[in-house]
Amino acid sequence: xxxKLYGKLIFEFSHPGRKAYSLPKNDFGRHEFxxxxxxxxxxxxxxxxxLTVVRHYTNHSGNNFGVDNGFxxxxxxxxxxxxxxxxxxxxxxxxxxLHPMQPEQTVQGALEVEYNLQQALSTITGMDDFTLNPxxxxxxxxxxxxxxxxxxxxxxxxxxxxxxxxDSAHGTNPASAAVCGLEVVEVKSTADGLVDVxxxxxxxxxxxxxxxxxxxxxxxxxxxxxxxxxxxIHSCGGLLYYxxxxxxxxxxxxxxxxxxxxxxHLNLHKTFSTPHGGGGPGSGPVGVKEHLREFLPKPHVVxxxxxxxxxxPCCCRKSDGYCFKNNRISxxxxxxxxxxxxxxxxxSLGKENIKNVGxxxxxxANYIKESLRNDYELxxxxxxxxxxxxxxxxxxxxxxxxxxxxxxxxxxxxxxxxIYFPLLFSEAMMIEPTETESKDSIDQFIEVMRxxxxxxxETPQLLKDAxxxxxxxxxxxxLAAKQSILVYKxxx
Length: 492
Fold this sequence. Notes:
By secondary structure, the protein is an alpha/beta fold. The chain has 16 helices and 14 strands.
């Protein structure tokens, strides 16, 4: 590809009078629009021939990186390969052409999918029921916290406004709590990266609404003290909330409901084969134990004999205040086609094979960790689950940073892992291989990481200048953030 053309906008290829498409003859007659609806000026659209348009967007598409064309070891995001059959099922006209306002009797198959997925997710997580309405993980977090807050307030326990969040948590946890009108209380981690139970105990009281935990946590470590934590939280009247971002390594092995969690949100776009990245679509279902079932948002699919029906939102007001039950948190039943992909994924694995997901993800992560421990600093030397964290290169004398390593990975055709998160380590590099990667692809990644470590020792400036094999070199992130150019302006 001609590097001089890369980065140009389609507007920059525009020439007056050029056309790529002719509209068909108007068979509808002439109809006048109201003046208020008419443009004051012509639309600012590029004028290009078809070949220019095709080449422009084809060249750009070749510079997209996705899991279909390379290894994507992005920690805590489970960027794994999604089977094409799930995409094909979601594209079937019988599903994709449905309208959310159709009468129930005409969409019984779709409602059966939703109901069966609710049941499957309940079984996988150890919950009693699920809502599929939330559109993404953070939306699921907010929904789960709203359920928790509604539960406490419905019992007149209105002073429970504090949510405990570990210092290693995903950033959406405290953000979701704040949006829900709750106060965030941070609990520290031990030197081993686990929740510090001794620090947790003084934080407990009759004002605690819940604790939000990810297990395995952001460091890829299983919270071995979860039975004690669950007992402590429940003893003070609080609830346990499970952030399902890291459910991947637990599939078929362990269930949040069995650990004592009351509320669970899942990221279907991470764990259960749906598109991830690029802004969506996503799905963040929320599961609850029996004592919280009545607080699930509506609409909600239920089975009535041999038919499936939808419980509608309730708009009533109780004599003792607002009805905390049945509130709507999204339109209709969430992202149906995303939910459909997840259902197809679960069916294709079955209970016999879904139990292999977690062990394979764990095996792949530990294999990379042990293979690279001589070149990269391992701040916590424990068996990990699906992901682990290095603290930059082991040899700090080179002056090469985690950012430099990440940029150099691009030159070798690998997407960089998550860097500088979690904030517990100054040069954090979080790597998650997922269960769908073969030993061949993992070995290639390990070899490249070793080569980069060798380059850092022998030619550190090479890493400082990286990437050098990409159409665009290293950009000034600070300048791009402070002086973003978001609108095209024709200077001709």
